[in-house]
Design goal:
This protein is about 35% helix and about 10% strand. By secondary structure, it is α/β, with parallel strands linked by helices.
Length: about 200
């Protein structure tokens, strides 16, 4: 005989964090922030084919003060970087960021002085979405992953402790400029179809 059999009908057991996480994930309003070709794919998720409205996100907000998700879709130029940061700062807390496409995540093919080599140099990113450009289905998958993060996020002192732990882990990580590429020459030469002229 379990605890649920001793409780009156209609009694629900849960935590405040679970309820708050569910409410937050079911009411996200994205900010309209398309910068390049990825924005076309982002706009496509609002069409009936993909129907982002089933996630409670049909309202793309034109003002950052009414948005809690920024989808950075496309490359960010150095000239646009302060604007991205300003829009992020004007969004109310809690807020989340999806970096959509390889250009937003790492600069992509634009390895030059004019393009920011990853939007995470300007704002914190919660989900990195690869692709050039990523398909609308991939954006929906990234949104579902973000919903999972939001559902399981902590509140109050627990949230502060989780943020500190994440920051300490990031500081302990090896910087990418110090990482060495691993090349297995034997594996490269033994790959079938590698030597097409032989």
């Amino acid at each position: 005989m379990g605890l649920e059999e001793k409780l009156p009908a209609g009694f629900v057991l849960t935590t405040l964090e679970s309820v708050a996480g569910y409410m937050r994930k079911a009411s996200i309003w994205p900010a309209t922030f398309g910068l390049a070709c990825c924005a076309i794919e982002m706009m496509a998720v609002g069409t009936p084919d993909y129907d982002i409205a089933r996630f409670g996100m049909e309202r793309f907000s034109a003002t950052p003060r009414q948005a809690d998700l920024m989808i950075v879709a496309g490359r960010v130029s150095n000239k646009m970087a302060p604007v991205v940061r300003q829009v992020y700062d004007q969004m109310p807390n809690p807020k989340w960021v999806i970096s959509m496409g390889v250009c937003a995540s790492s600069g992509g093919m634009f390895n030059n002085y004019a393009i920011v080599q990853g939007v995470d140099h300007i704002i914190p990113v919660d989900i990195y979405l690869p692709g050039c450009p990523p398909r609308p289905e991939m954006l929906l998958n990234a949104i579902i992953e973000l919903h999972d993060q939001i559902q399981n996020s902590k509140l109050g002192v627990n949230r502060v402790a989780a943020a500190r732990a994440a920051e300490e882990a990031a500081l302990r990580a090896t910087p990418t400029r110090l990482m060495q590429p691993t090349h297995d020459h034997a594996a490269l030469t033994a790959t079938p179809g590698r030597n097409l002229l032989a």
